[in-house]
Design brief:
- The protein is globular, with a radius of gyration of 20 Å.
- The chain has twelve helices and no strands.
- Helix content is 80%, strand content 0%.
- Helix 3 packs across helix 7 and helix 7 crosses helix 8.
- It starts with a helix and ends with a helix.
- The protein is mainly α.
- It has one domain.
């Protein structure tokens, strides 16, 4: 048995929770644990999703805060919820990137040959990404708190915001999972993912209020799912939550999951 196979077997058997619950759930949790171990053993994957959002927060706040909002404190209150959304959006790329790496190395061919619940490797990997999303969001929040951001909604609002972020990122992650199963290289996954994320991230209300934009761009921002979740988070963290805004923000992840989860599983099960 090769060293890689030995490490894989140890990873799949390392989680203490795999013995509990129904077999499909246990197998999914085993693969979620594997995804967490990959983060620990490949810390370079976390650099982009930790350093980049912190840089965006600090640079944009002090460079544009006074010009756009009159003060850095006021702009930070406006910007930080949007940076949280941007963070989990950019982090969701790694769902597809790491999956495609496993495919190219032949690891997923071995999974498909194992007597396990077929969706377990995919569902488990996506579930494991919850840790990545949460850690990234918490680090950005910590930097924001040091800079002067305050969570007016309290601990309950913070917890609700983290849950909403994770649900949104998990839904969006199915797009990149399907993409990873269609293209040949991890580099292609990254390139195509950025082509999707850049327009929806920067063509939103994350950085500036849409009222200052041209009419055609305002129309795009109004229907952009990134704008919807950013608005919901601003309400939650600012102490003025809106159930309608939260409901609107949840439409996209549920719709994307309903469409792309079956597509991903079909792509995963097909012959290569």
């Amino acid at each position: 048995m090769s060293p890689r196979e030995t490490r894989l077997d140890r990873a799949l058997g390392a989680a203490p929770t795999v013995t509990a619950g129904p077999r499909p759930l246990a197998e999914m949790l085993a693969f979620a644990w594997r995804a967490i171990l990959k983060i620990r053993h490949n810390p370079e994957h976390a650099v982009d999703v930790v350093v980049t959002p912190v840089m965006f927060t600090v640079i944009f706040t002090y460079l544009f805060g006074g010009a756009l909002a009159g003060s850095t404190d006021a702009y930070l209150d406006f910007l930080l919820p949007g940076i949280l959304v941007q963070t989990v959006m950019f982090t969701s790329i790694y769902t597809g990137f790491i999956l495609n790496q496993d495919i190219q190395r032949g690891v997923f061919d071995r999974f498909r040959a194992m007597p396990i619940w077929r969706p377990a490797p995919i569902a488990g990997a996506i579930l494991g990404d919850v840790v990545r999303y949460t850690v990234s969001a918490v680090l950005v929040l910590a930097v924001g708190l040091v800079m002067g951001f305050r969570i007016e909604g309290g601990a309950g609002a913070l917890l609700a915001a983290l849950v909403l972020l994770n649900v949104f990122a998990l839904g969006v992650g199915w797009i990149f999972t399907a993409l990873a199963l269609m293209v040949r290289t991890p580099g292609t996954v990254m390139t195509l993912s950025w082509l999707v994320l850049m327009p929806v991230t920067f063509g939103s209300n994350i950085y500036v209020a849409p009222e200052t934009m041209p009419g055609w761009l305002q129309a795009f921002v109004a229907v952009n799912p990134v704008s919807h979740i950013t608005t919901a988070l601003r309400g939650l963290l600012g102490g003025d939550p809106s159930l309608s805004a939260i409901a609107l923000a949840l439409v996209t992840p549920f719709a994307v999951t309903a469409v792309f989860a079956p597509i991903s599983m079909w792509l995963y099960g097909r012959e290569r």
